[in-house]
Amino acid sequence: MRLPRFHRARPGNAVVVSDDDVLEAAVRVFVASPEASLADVGRHARVELREMRARFGTREAVIDRVIMRGARRIARGAVLEDGTPAEQIALLVARLWDDQEPVAPFITLGVRAHLRVPVEETLAPARALFADAVARGAHDGTLRADVSPRAVAWLIEQSVLDCLEALARGLMEDEDGRTFVMRQALATAGLGWTDAAAVTDAVTRRIS
């Protein structure tokens, strides 16, 4: 397991581990063992338990910070690439899935009641991109127009979160996660399953 980088904080030999490095260690620890303790995270980050408590408070606070950091990363990295509106949705969903699949166990820890609202607020830039693609698809008749693009975008976002949770709970053992979540998102956007499969296959070839 890769140990965190150390950053010198003052002259002499004293070094500290940054909060970001602790959170990186927390991801590895909790993915390997979702029931790991704050002390377990501290040992892997080379931070004493007393300092972990002073800096983060509790195990749950560390988990919350990791989840929110992941949401901010998604928001910063969300872009619409070239293609039809359906292809753009599939591409964005695929990028989100590839980014978040390694930390899917956090979803079960994870987008809990007290975090759902701040996570959704943080993901607003990604949701706006989905809404833009849905609106253009509704205008040209390729995507659903019976529900507002904003509502469809929210449903797509929730479908990604639901699929991550299903993966973390072991309910997708027989499915290719990325393919499944792209098809689910496209079905939510109004495509029939055969059209959703065709778009997904084309996008998969493009990014493979």
From TrEMBL:
Gene3D superfamilies: Tetracycline Repressor, domain 2 (1.10.357.10). InterPro entries: Tet_transcr_reg_TetR-rel_C_sf. It comes from the Bacteria. This is Transcriptional regulator, TetR family. It comes from Demequina muriae.
